[in-house]
């Protein structure tokens, strides 16, 4: 059942690049030479196993029974991951839901153990991704913390699990829209919003705000070296929102004309702080200095039971950085892709659980992991 | 620290809009203290004492009282007093005001006397928060909730008799005005308050010093009476509200009314209050006989038999004498240090204190001499002693084990308090034990009940202390990385376990042990660590700002964590936390969840413990340094040796409990989620 024989897309062995970055690159279509190479690899991988990616409903039964090859969470996960608008965690959640369906376990205990294994496999697929492991953990919590496990009839219990799993998947899918509804209230006419990084949730919020005929202006940081800002500003420009691009070092320079800062998050940690693309911390610091609110849009499946005490307290997610010119020999390059913003620099978090202050995150987490 | 506080200013308005969106006129803290479920008639009077602009009469009233500067002692005493019953806090402030005219008689009292009475009070409610918590475990919490019921009731009833309550109202008004005349004396006035009420009972102050047997019973009346007075006053307020509604008079007219009241005050006041209080107390008995019964049990449990009461009186006298030495003004509400005389006294009385179980006695003496110290150790020892006491316990005929054993435990506890004020963790443990006793099944046999209790105590020690420590160690070790420099302060067993565990795991780190006079607890810890082969640096608190440069993590223990995230810990902890916050070094507090307390503490004055002032005047091994010899002869010299301080949550990065690593803002969540059933069972 263990998919160890499958091609592990995590290329940390060959490039020293974290899977976290790789996923980002795929989702955000960052065009780097690395990404091209990976895309190439992905194509070949897909070509190798094209028949295992049909509809989810079909996969479970047919593959497990028919092809003689065990159902693989990773395959399922990769299938969902290909969907452009689906977050990694949601893909994992969908994959786990499918896993329950296709499981051949005959007892509840067995099913639970298998599910645990599958979730561990998914997590080990990319250890640097916070939302992936958080999503898996939350799924396990949500699904298994039910009275269903005491049902006498195994099939009824399994159905119950599937139901819960799908419900959770549904909630996660809808999360972004919920957040957009909540977040757009904070965009007021004539406001100037500073955005850092390419966050699909933030984009959704701004889209909704724009479609509600709110007049606002967006400042996008360039987001070196991924140039996420370029893509983000492109999306906004198509919506007709006035956008201005800044280089990353111009944040403090422009902060006095900014009314609020909007960022997404890779993970929301127990302290209420966020882990996000490199540069978020410094923007939050500048905003805090100038008393500008910093709003974070993040789905609740990104809530992770982590508690970093400082920047170095997290496993770094390594990414390649191109400087355009050869780096002088003997010079080190900081290649971490993300940083940690402590809660005291955040104003509010827009989540599908509601608009929260940073301290409520821990509240929610404690409730979940009771 | 600013950086931590400023963002809240940004957040606050939005949060507040969610929370208090109706009318923000009264300060939120005060309006919160008004019980939400009281009727309108009750809310208004309570509000009046807190927020001026509600009725005209009270505007003038308050403008008077706002002139006088509230003495700090009042605040602290009040704070302590109200801790037990949060809901009653606002009204009890007012009760002080009302009573103060009586206090004119008491102002001349010698200092020693009111201190002793204070001490008596401390016995029941002040001594330590936890003690008040468990002493009236059965009713103190109920009181908080049910008090409002009583209040509404009395308010209504009083309103039904407008004549008498109107008179009472005037009396109250005059009472509130009186202290305005002398801002300076109010401190002593307020302090003297308990006695004054006792005075109504007809006892003289001198008597109080000697015959504490009387004082004991007086104290009881004090409490009842105080509450009665509160009720009368509440009734008065309700009436005043009615009057205010009827007349809706302007400032001037109400001022006039006030003047009239002032003139009439002195004649009416004593009898009126007396009358009202007796009525009120009767009423209370009618309304809640059950509660009163419980109260009697717990109080009688604190009153020892006659002989011992007299002995206690002597002990108090000794304390009074001790206290005549210069105690620090701000901390006079705390039980004053009394080590020397008490140890001798207790040792000499070993064969007379036959109602105290020997093992409890032993533990008490250990507390007294300091041979058992540290929150966990003290709590464990106490529980083990109780376990032995339970083992040797046999129910007297015609008594139920639940009742009798509870009173027994209470008497043990008051003995332990006499030895040393309880820590909050011990208070929680006692609460747990009493809860278990109260829930004993009446149908099971005595031996069965006893074995149940024994296993419960075992379970508490195991789950809440031993296993919890292991879990905490497991969590905290993940935060130690190779190359770290850890700073520790005080002597926390769990921190020690963390360090040893991390060392066993082969992590490479260095430790800075910070110590401070007079206890120098760090030395013992340092010894243990060095024996295990850890590399340590030893320094004193004075050097903290220098040493902090190289530190990467600060690990601290806690005596208690309060629900606003305040850390109540060994004195000096706040200093360490602040310096490390300034240096941006993360501060980790390691604390078992059974030490959490639902109260809120803002400073280290309200609740603290005083140590021997002599130990800070002398430096061991330096006899030449005797400038402070005979310091107590100097009227204007006071020495303060505090045991604990309160660290604001702003300086704390993380709290490590057995429930995980949580930010200090999540302490109330732990209460909510694990609260009643799990934390205290």
Automatic annotation (TrEMBL), chain A:
Gene3D superfamilies given in the database record: Translation initiation factor eif-2b, domain 2, Translation initiation factor eIF-2B, N-terminal domain
UniProt subunit comment: Component of the translation initiation factor 2B (eIF2B) complex which is a heterodecamer of two sets of five different subunits: alpha, beta, gamma, delta and epsilon. Subunits alpha, beta and delta comprise a regulatory subcomplex and subunits epsilon and gamma comprise a catalytic subcomplex. Within the complex, the hexameric regulatory complex resides at the center, with the two heterodimeric catalytic subcomplexes bound on opposite sides.
Pfam families, per database record: IF-2B
Name under which the protein is recorded: Translation initiation factor eIF2B subunit alpha
Protein family (similarity comment): Belongs to the eIF-2B alpha/beta/delta subunits family.
Source taxonomy: Eukaryota, Viridiplantae, Streptophyta, Embryophyta, Tracheophyta
One cellular component term from this protein's GO annotations in UniProt: eukaryotic translation initiation factor 2B complex
Localization (cell): Cytoplasm, Cytosol
């Amino acid at each position: 059942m263990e998919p160890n024989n499958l091609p592990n897309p995590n290329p940390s062995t060959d490039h020293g690049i974290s899977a976290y970055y790789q996923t980002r690159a795929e989702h955000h279509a960052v065009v780097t030479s690395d990404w091209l190479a990976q895309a190439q690899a992905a194509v070949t991988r897909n070509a190798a196993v094209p028949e295992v990616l049909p509809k989810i409903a079909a996969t479970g039964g047919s593959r497990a029974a028919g092809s003689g090859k065990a159902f693989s969470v990773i395959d399922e996960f990769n299938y969902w991951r290909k969907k452009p608008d689906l977050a990694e965690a949601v893909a994992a959640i969908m994959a786990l839901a499918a896993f329950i369906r296709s499981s051949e376990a005959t007892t509840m205990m067995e099913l639970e153990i298998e599910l645990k294994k599958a979730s561990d496999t998914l997590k080990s697929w990319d250890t640097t991704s916070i939302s992936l492991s958080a999503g898996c953990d939350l799924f396990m919590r949500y699904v298994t913390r039910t009275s269903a496990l005491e049902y006498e009839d195994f099939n009824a219990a399994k159905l119950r699990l599937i139901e819960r799993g799908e419900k959770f998947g549904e909630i996660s899918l809808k999360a972004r829209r919920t957040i957009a509804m909540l977040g757009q209230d904070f965009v007021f006419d004539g406001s100037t919003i500073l955005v850092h990084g390419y966050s699909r949730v933030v984009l959704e919020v701004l889209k909704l705000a724009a479609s509600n005929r709110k007049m606002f202006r967006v400042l996008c940081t360039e987001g070196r070296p991924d140039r996420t800002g370029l893509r983000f500003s492109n999306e906004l420009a198509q919506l007709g929102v006035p956008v201005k691009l800044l280089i990353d070092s111009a944040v403090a320079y422009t902060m006095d004309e900014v009314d609020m800062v909007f960022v997404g998050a890779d993970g929301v940690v127990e302290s209420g702080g966020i882990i996000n693309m490199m540069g978020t911390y410094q923007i939050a610091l500048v905003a805090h200095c100038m008393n500008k609110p910093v709003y974070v849009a993040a789905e609740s499946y990104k809530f992770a039971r982590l508690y970093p005490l400082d920047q170095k307290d997290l496993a770094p997610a390594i990414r390649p950085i191109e400087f355009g010119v050869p780096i002088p020999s003997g010079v080190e390059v900081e290649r971490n892709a993300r940083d940690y913003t402590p809660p005291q620099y955040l104003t509010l978090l827009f989540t599908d659980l509601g608009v929260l202050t940073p301290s409520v995150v821990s509240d929610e987490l404690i409730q979940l992991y009771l | 620290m600013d950086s931590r506080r400023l963002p809240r200013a940004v957040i606050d308005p939005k949060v507040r809009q969610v929370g208090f969106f109706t009318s923000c006129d009264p300060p939120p803290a005060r309006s919160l203290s008004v019980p939400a479920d009281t009727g309108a008639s009750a809310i208004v009077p309570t509000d009046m004492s807190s927020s001026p602009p509600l009725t005209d009469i009270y505007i003038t009233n308050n403008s008077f009282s706002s002139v006088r500067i509230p003495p700090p002692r009042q605040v602290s005493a009040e704070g302590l007093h109200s801790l037990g019953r949060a809901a009653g806090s606002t009204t009890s402030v007012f009760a002080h005001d009302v009573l103060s005219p009586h206090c004119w008689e008491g102002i001349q009292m010698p200092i020693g006397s009111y201190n002793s009475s204070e001490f008596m009070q401390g016995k029941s409610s002040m001594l330590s928060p936890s003690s008040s918590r468990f002493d009236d475990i059965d009713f103190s919490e109920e009181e908080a909730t049910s008090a409002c019921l009583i209040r509404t009731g009395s308010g209504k009833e009083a309103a039904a008799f407008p004549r008498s309550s109107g008179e009472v109202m005037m009396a109250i008004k005059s009472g509130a005005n009186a202290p305005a005349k002398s801002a300076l004396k109010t401190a002593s006035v307020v302090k003297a308050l308990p006695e004054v009420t006792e005075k109504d009972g007809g006892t003289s102050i001198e008597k109080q010093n000697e015959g504490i047997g009387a004082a004991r019973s007086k104290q009881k009346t004090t409490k009842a009476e105080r509450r009665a007075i509160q009720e009368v006053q509440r009734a008065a307020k309700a009436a005043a509200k009615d009057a205010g509604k009827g007349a809706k008079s302007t400032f001037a007219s109400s001022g006039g009314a006030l003047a009239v009241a002032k003139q009439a005050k002195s004649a009416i006041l004593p009898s009126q209050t007396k009358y009202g209080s007796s009525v009120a107390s009767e009423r209370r008995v009618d309304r809640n006989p059950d509660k009163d019964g419980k109260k009697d049990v717990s109080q009688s449990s604190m009153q020892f038999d006659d002989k011992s009461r007299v002995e206690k009186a002597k002990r108090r006298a000794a304390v009074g004498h001790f206290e005549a030495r210069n105690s620090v003004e701000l901390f006079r509400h705390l039980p004053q240090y009394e080590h020397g005389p008490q140890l001798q006294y207790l040792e000499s009385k070993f064969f007379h204190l036959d109602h105290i179980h020997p093992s409890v006695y032993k533990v008490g003496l250990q507390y007294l001499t300091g041979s058992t110290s540290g929150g966990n150790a003290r709590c464990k020892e106490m529980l083990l002693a109780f376990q032995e006491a339970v083992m040797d316990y046999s129910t007297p005929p015609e008594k139920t084990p639940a009742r009798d054993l509870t009173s027994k435990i209470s008497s043990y506890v008051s003995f332990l308090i006499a030895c040393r004020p309880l820590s909050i963790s011990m208070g929680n443990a006692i609460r747990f034990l009493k809860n278990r006793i109260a829930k004993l099944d009446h149908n099971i046999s005595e031996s069965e009940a006893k074995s149940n209790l024994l296993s419960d105590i075992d379970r508490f020690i195991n789950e809440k202390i031993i296993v919890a420590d292991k879990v905490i160690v497991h969590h905290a070790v993940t935060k130690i990385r190779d190359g770290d420099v850890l700073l520790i302060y005080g002597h926390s067993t769990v921190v020690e376990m963390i360090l040893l565990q991390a060392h066993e795991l082969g992590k490479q780190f260095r430790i800075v042990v910070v110590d401070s006079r007079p206890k120098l607890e760090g030395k013992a810890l340092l010894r243990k660590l060095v024996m295990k082969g850890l590399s340590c640096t030893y320094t004193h608190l004075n050097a903290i700002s220098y040493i902090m440069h190289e530190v990467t993590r600060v690990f601290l223990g806690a005596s208690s964590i309060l629900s606003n995230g305040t850390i109540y810990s060994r004195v000096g902890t706040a200093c360490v936390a602040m310096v490390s916050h300034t240096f941006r070094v993360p501060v980790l507090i390691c604390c078992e969840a059974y030490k959490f307390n639902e109260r809120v503490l803002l400073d280290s004055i309200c609740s603290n413990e005083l140590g021997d002032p002599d130990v800070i005047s002398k430096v061991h091994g330096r006899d030449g340094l005797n400038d402070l010899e005979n310091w107590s002869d100097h009227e204007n010299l006071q020495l303060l040796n505090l045991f604990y301080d309160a660290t604001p949550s702003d300086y704390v990065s993380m709290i490590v409990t057995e429930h995980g690593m949580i930010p200090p803002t999540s302490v109330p969540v732990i209460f909510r989620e694990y609260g009643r059933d799990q934390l205290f069972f």
